[in-house]
Design brief:
Layout (H helix, E strand, L loop, with lengths): L51 E5 L7 E4 L8 E6 L19 E6 L15 E5 L3 E2 L7 E9 L4 E8 L6 E5 L18 E6 L1 H4 L4 E10 L16 E10 L5 E9 L7 E3 L7 E8 L5 E10 L4 E4 L3 E3 L4 E5 L13 E9 L15 E6 L2 E2 L9 E2 L6 E9 L3 E8 L14 E9 L6 E6 L3 E2 L9 E11 L3 E9 L6 E6 L5 E5 L4 E4 L2 E3 L1 E4 L13 E7 L6 E8 L3 E9 L4 E10 L2 E8 L6 E9 L2 E9 L1
Parallel strand pairs: 14-21
Antiparallel strand pairs: 1-12, 2-5, 3-4, 4-12, 5-11, 6-11, 7-10, 7-12, 8-9, 8-11, 13-15, 15-19, 16-17, 16-18, 16-20, 20-21, 22-35, 23-31, 24-30, 24-32, 25-29, 25-35, 26-27, 26-28, 26-30, 31-34, 32-33, 36-37, 37-40, 38-39, 38-41, 41-42
Amino acid sequence: MKKVYLSILLAGLTAGSSVAQLVQKPLVSGEISRMKPASSPIKPTEKQLGTVFWQDNFDTPSNWVVDNSGQTGGEFGWTIDATSDGWYSANGINSTSGGNFAEVSNGDPTLTTPSQALGVTYTLTSAQPIDLTANGTQVSLSFQQFGARFNDLQEIQISTNGTTFFPVGDNMDKDVLSAAGGTAYPNPDTKTINLAGYLAGATQVWIRFVWTTAFPTLATNPNVWITYGWYIDDVKLTTNAEYDLALQSAYWGTAFLNYYQLPLTQVAPIDFTANVVNGGSLPMTNAKLNVNVNTGAWTGSSPGATIAPIATDSLVVSTQYTPSNAATATYNVTRTITADAVDDIPSNNVLPAIAFSTTNFIYARDNNVPAGSTNNGPDGFEVGNLFDIWQDQTLTAINVRLVGGGSNGTTVGTEIYVKLYSIDPGTGDFVYEGESDPKILASNNLNTNLVMVLNTPVDLIANSTYLAVVGAFGPGLRVANAGTSDPQTSFLYDTPTDTWFYQTGTPYVRLNFDPSVGIEEMEGTVSKATVYPNPSVGTTTVDYSLANAADVTIQLTDVSGKVIASWNEGTQEAGDHSLSFDAASFNSGIYYVTIASEGSVVTKKFVKK
């Protein structure tokens, strides 16, 4: 397979998911929405439904009508044959039937001059109506597929009159694949869509597969017309089972955030919910979500619900579960969905087990299983997670894990830092609270839990939300992801565009409340020096402390060592001091602030945007 992972970042888009390197929704001023109740959709396994009454494996291409928006050639639009025409996959789909398959392509973005067509919509439609009179409308559509998602829309539509088509499904629940992470679809992946709610007494149906951009408002941008390809085979219509309660999504956590490690001081009640759909032809009675913690130490269930065919419902456990804050412990959670009737397809309502722990000092959103990473190509960036604080506590450090090894690892010698932001309750903007000194990475800093000590501990306030990030001013940083985040709960800041994007991979960025971290004997007169805001566009402040009364001078230099400005502060008393200057007239770039007193020299870097 020709594995070329795209890494185009598109600023200002209003939809998308998965990794922040690619297409993400920017954080609009005032917008910190944490819309749930749902975590990542659980992808169902292939359903063994009732009777297959229609199927097509593309052995006869004339069974389908292709509209390629006037484009010609195998690398544009839909083709039906046994050859892979696209730039990404050499072998196409490993479908059950083999032989011919349908494939959509749209040029080659890896060429020196990328060749994707703009303003196109490619459709593949069944040539003849499929008769439903003998089987009714309680039917499901299934097909095998392969490919990956970038900025494109892969949509499934149907029509009951052959003229008006409407969508019944898409692949927007799939990961985005880019240089920052994500995955291609399994080869093959079976997708099943229950059509009963769309057919409403129809006696026939047409099926259509549609490819176009997911961002029509950016139609002039060639990047939104890139596709890895979409391969389809073994399309079937099958009668529905009688009893089929299927899981759509599930959520656990506190105030819409779930934590895999939480300090005893931040323990709070945990909710459990599941969204389900009755995909069968008969009602499901007494449907419940059941939760069991540590083999019966605590159990809870949602009220029993009756769910009509094709209807959906949210099952919410009646009581919250609050872990003990008396001692650290590990909690193992199982969740099941039950109903009075025996489910004909139990495989599509399985919820994965959960394990989390209480700790003395660590607050972690990631699940501690690194898989994939976040980077921003040649550009500087910051990436991290939101954390809710339930009791006042002092933050001393931020822990991170950086991917190392090979061409896809963090570059040794990269300079990184961590920062903490609060959230302005009026505007939703991120507000700078503190940061660490920059650190030049060595090889032993990679693939490990790296503790980055804050310059000055930050007092966090109860009932507030904070964003902890790790960042770099240039290329070379790859931050490990571990688990998934809901939209608007993990964020990436793109330095060149001064834009915040959300990402749905959870960065390995944690809060560390250990009060012993960073305590060391301070040598010299100057200590606790900080430059903020950083990056800066105008007024910039230098805070520093003196261990004793002393003469102080401060110099500002550029990367070449040229002195841009200097200040003689004279003799100052022991304690905290500040100096402010206006950086508005400076050229964009990296500068250094040096504070000197009685042989003690402290240098801090700041960036002028």
